[in-house]
Every structure is written in C-alpha cells, then in structure tokens.
Amino acid sequence: MQTAGVHHVGLSVTNVKRSKDFYMDLFGWKEVGADQKLGYVFLSDGKNTITPWHQSQSGYNRTHAGLHHLALAVNGIEELMRAERMLRKKKIRIHYDRIVPITEGTQAAELYFFDPDGICVELFSDAGDEGLQPPVQHGPSCLLGE
C-alpha cells in the first residue's frame, strides 16, 4: 500500500466553535466544510487541513492513546520568532517557554504551544537552532518533558 500524503488530521475537542475560532484566528485558516449535526468542521490553509470534532468531554490527556502532538512546518526561524511574539501577545501557553532545538546537534528549531483543549501544537523550522539549549537531553524536544 502506498500513500500520497496526509489528507487531514482529526482532533477530538470539547468545543468545535472555540477550536475553530482558535485555529482560524492564529493561522488564518479558512473553513472548507462542516457538519453541525455531526459536530465537526474542516479548516485549511489550502495545503494542510485539520478537522476539530466535538467528541471529548474533557481536555487532552497524554495518558490515553491518540494524538501526541500536531506538527506544522513554518518557513524559517524568522517566522518561528514571529509566531512566538504572536503567541505571547495572545497569552497562549508556550511549552518550554521558548523556541528550542529539535534535538541536540541538529539545525532545526521548534516552538510548542497548547490549543484550548490542551492539544500540543508544534511549529517546526528546518533551521535556526544556533545557540539554543535543548530542553530534553538525549532525545527529541517533542518528548514534551518539563
């Protein structure tokens, strides 16, 4: 079996409207489909699509099977730094409280934050880790340790 890319990523959320507003406001994504009766919405930037589904009664719990984190690429460290400023201005909780390298000895940098349900979102730049200290020793930053 051969795949041709990811069509969309479904997120189990507690409030579809709140999640829709969050992702549309933050990323400028557009609604490209929805079903209020079934409780979902498709949001897209024209390339990536996520689907918040109202299926949860409580926020994210990393002890349950499911999505570990949602990783989205950005175009370079400047965009990552701009995203960090925007998140701080909007008072959105940033994991590690800073931009971090993906792991020791690489060139990639990342910024992790949490959506309204506590789902971890990663913004990934393939360059820009110069001088950054890894938050996790001997492993990727997406281990999401404190």
Concise account of the structure shown:
With 146 residues, this protein is of the alpha/beta class. The chain has helices at residues 16-27, 77-89, and strands at 9-13, 30-35, 40-44, 49-54, 70-73, 94-101, 109-114, 120-125. It contains two helices and eight strands, in the order E-H-E-E-E-E-H-E-E-E.
What can you see in these coordinates?
The chain is α/β, with parallel strands linked by helices and 146 residues long. It folds into two domains: 1-58, 2,3-Dihydroxybiphenyl 1,2-Dioxygenase, domain 1 (Roll); 67-146, 2,3-Dihydroxybiphenyl 1,2-Dioxygenase, domain 1. The protein is built from two helices and eight strands. The strands form two sheets. Strands 1-4-3-2 form a four-stranded mixed sheet, with helices on one face. A four-stranded mixed sheet has the order 5-8-7-6, covered by helices on one side. A hairpin with a 5-residue loop joins β7 (109-114) and β8 (120-125). The chain is globular and about 50 Å long. The protein starts with 8 loop residues before the first strand and ends in a 21-residue tail after the last strand. The model has no long low-confidence stretch (mean pLDDT 90).
Unreliable spans = none
CATH classification, class level of the largest domain: Alpha Beta
Oligomer: single chain
The CATH superfamily of the largest domain is known as 2,3-Dihydroxybiphenyl 1,2-Dioxygenase, domain 1
Task: Please state the structural category.
Answer: alpha/beta
Shape: globular
Task: Tell me about the largest β-sheet.
Answer: 4 strands, mixed
Strand content: 25-35%
Average residue-wise pLDDT: 90
**Residues in helix, %:** 10-25%
Please state how the strands of the largest beta sheet are arranged side by side: 1-4-3-2
Amino-to-carboxy terminus distance: 38 Å
User: In CATH terms, what is the fold-level topology of the largest domain?
Assistant: 2,3-Dihydroxybiphenyl 1,2-Dioxygenase, domain 1
- Structurally, the number of domains stands at 2
Tally the beta strands. 8
